[in-house]
């Protein structure tokens, strides 16, 4: 299958190793992966701030970059959800529909489309998973604790395939980290307090490596960890699933 790799702005600028890990994982499972070099922001920051009318050029460019692929995959749940919910174009709506219905966050693509049941990764650490809001409540990659239903987690299913890895059990499985995109700028104090609470749960339960599927949330938590000089490393789940 032909897969277009969508790498969000902040991953491209600050965490290129995450994009590389995602690429290597997809190729390992037989995907023919391409990276459209002209891709830019998907438009989520403007839309989240109430300026969706400024995202039209982003939509058109995204369609031009990704409409020709069987699937589009990204190591970012929030950006994927934005495209799924908001990508439209009056002149190219058929292509927009194809993109909206064929874009996947990395862990859901590995579990739902590639049906991965075995990994060769080795990562001998205690790992705590941050279930980001967009991935969990928007893409449903994990069960929400407020629903009375059998629990599941696609990221944890994949992490359980990694030899040597021990999953940390947290007190609050799916609490928001406080990042929230532009929320962390507009409501800095609240955002930081939420992040501290989230990090404290990992500290209390012995997390050595904090991971998740949204590098934006992890970036926020990593800033708090570094400022408090805590002995926790932050890594995107793609890096762990690709570990040797």
The CATH class designation of the largest domain is: Alpha Beta
Named CATH topology of the largest domain: Rossmann fold
Structural classification: alpha/beta
How many structural domains in the coordinates?
2
How would you describe the shape? Answer: globular
**Residue share in helix:** 40-55%
Say how many strands there are: 8
Provide structural commentary.
It comes from Runella slithyformis (strain ATCC 29530 / DSM 19594 / LMG 11500 / NCIMB 11436 / LSU 4). The protein has 244 residues and is of the alpha/beta class. The chain folds into two domains: 2-113, no CATH class; 126-241, Rossmann fold, CATH 3.40.50. The chain contains 13 helices and eight strands. The chain has helices spanning 9-14, 16-28, 44-48, 56-66, 77-86, 93-101, 106-113, 133-138, 154-159, 183-186, 188-204, 215-227, 237-241, and strands at residues 2-5, 32-34, 71-74, 103-105, 126-130, 166-167, 209-212, 233-236. α11 crosses α12 (215-227). It is globular and about 55 Å long. The two termini are 25 Å apart. The model has no long low-confidence stretch (mean pLDDT 93).
